[in-house]
Amino acid sequence: MLDTVVAAETPEGILLELRPAGLTARFYAFVLDWIIRIAIIYGAGIIANVTGGVGVAFWIILIFALEWLYPIAFELTASGATPGKRVFGLRVLMDNGLPVTAAASVTRNLLRAADFLPLVYGFALVSILIRRDCKRLGDIAAATIVVYEQRSVSRPPLDYVAPVVPVRSLALEEQAAVIALAARAPRLTRDRLDELASLAAVVSGDAGGSGPAVTDRVLGVAQWLMGRRR
Amino acid sequence: MTPLRFEETYQDEWAELETLLDRVLGRNGRKDNADPPVSGARLAALYRRACEQLALARARAYPAYLVERLERLTADGHQLIYHRREFGLARLKEVIAVEFPSAVRQHMTYVAIATAVFLLPTIIVGMLVYRQPEMILTVVSADTAAEFEEMYSRSAESIGRVRAASTDWMMFGFYIRNNVSVAFQCFAGGLFAGLGSLFFLGFNGLYSGAIAGYLTERGLSSTFYSFIATHSAFELTAIVLSGAAGLRIGHALLAPARQTRRQALVHATQESAVLLYGVTAMLLVAAGIEAFWSSATWLLPTVKYAVAAICWTAVLGYFAFAGRHAD
Fold first, then answer.
1. Distance from CA of A147 to the nearest CA of B (A)
2. A223, B14, B107, B154: which is deepest, by most CB within 10 A?
3. Whole-structure pTM value
4. Does B83 touch chain A (CB under 8 A)?
């Protein structure tokens, strides 16, 4: 598989598939969090300027809190993600797929001090790029992982084609491939779909053929494999 | 069994599990107290069945929408059922009364090394600068040295400040930010085989030593030492402890014993996390004392030294004795 999937085994013996978030998504999330924090600091700075003394003190404490506690506080909520991560569909989990614990969240965020070295998150950058599970140093040490939220996949809408009986019995992988093609059909352009379907045309007995009619017959095989008979 | 038949057979169970999970996790924004309470046993049973069905669906290479629906169900159920809750006042009390001091005792070797790495440069550089005050210039610039001298001069309105405009509260905020960052650096540096921790500990020791030696030579010892005596009980110990936590993870990386390096690292950070809770709390206390007590000029140095002695005894006694029954 080309997917970067990390498996976490549950006590029931099944593997939960975690999809680690790569550099781009995490970078966007970080920038968004950064903008949010700057906006809060700037806004509070205006108020602090008016009130002076104590206000400025709270402002400095606020900067400290936003710097170190902001990610920890948000990661320990039910969503397990800072606002930036939530917008980009990311969340922080433990390696075993459970919500992040307080100790792990504290460690991974304090270790930003190490990830930040030598310059602007240099080590984090390298670590995320070279590791399959896209962890920065803090993630490695705290046994946490940043993953994409599970998104729902809808059932392939195939009602417009009639089921077609495959010309020969299909192995499990072949069945899965045909059904996966049908699931992707709505997201492909017509030409691309025809092109891909022609590769699978052997299942409907149209080997070598291509075009909309062949495509419909291949999708019909998918219908049949899904269990529709009429 | 075809995928559609499979879905038809089990979709009622899945829908029930989905509803239960949504209700427990408070999703869909509705918290309806009118609903009957969620039965934990029923949820667990449905979860286990979903696990079996997921294994079947994967083995039979069922279409992605089915497998992903089951994956979502089992992932949510897994998180709900095995989630460790470790918040609350009881846990906080446990950390303060037992876990933190007993973690300090467990890490005694690292604490001792961190103390030595911090104190030796302090003493050596302090002595050197005391004998040859111009050596201060190898550590800080002339301007900074002059600023420090001004801060602790007898005429200063409040000690440890340059200008009167800065209020106690402002300095409180400043100290928190500054000290916590120093402490966290000492910890995080441990990821580089402990070298970072050694460096930051040594550097901070050297810096403090240089300033102390310089100010003593200038004859400002009474203001300087009465200023630092009290809060250093919390601040210096906290910095040394975070350095010790850093050394612990550095050591785990260098000598992982019978684990892989990664396992050893994870294990070490989990064990030292409690040190970090304690360190953060101590730094908050230190910043409060530093801003409101240490800087006060109306207190006699003798009073400050007496309070400092009490604080040091309390902190060291706390590490030595608190939570012993649990060791």
1. 13
2. A223
3. 0.74
4. yes
**Residue range B163-180: mean pLDDT, rounded:** 67
- pLDDT surpassing 70 at residue B31: no
User: Nearest 5 degrees, angle CA B181-CA B187-CA B192?
Assistant: 120
Of all residues in chain A, the one with the smallest CA distance to B51 is A14
Q: CA-nearest residue of chain B to A180?
A: B63
Question: Tens digits of per-residue pLDDT, A144-181?
Answer: 999 888 766 666 676 677 788 888 887 878 888 888 88
Choose the mutation target among A6, A14, A111, A148 for the interface with B, i.e. most B CBs under 10 Å: A14
Q: What is the mean pLDDT of residues A86-95?
A: 89
Answer whether B22 touches A (CB < 8 Å). Answer: no
Residue A1 pLDDT greater than 60, yes or no: no
- Report chain A residues whose CB lies below 8 A from the CB of B199: none
Asked if B89 has any chain A CB less than 8 Å from its own CB, the reply is no
- The domain limits of chain B are 3-82, 90-326
The CA distance from A211 to the nearest CA of chain B, in Å, is 25
- Read off the pLDDT of each residue in B108-113 and give the average, rounded to a whole number: 93
What confidence score (pLDDT) does residue B30 get? 55
Q: Which of A6-10, A68-72, A128-132, A161-165 has the lowest mean pLDDT?
A: A161-165
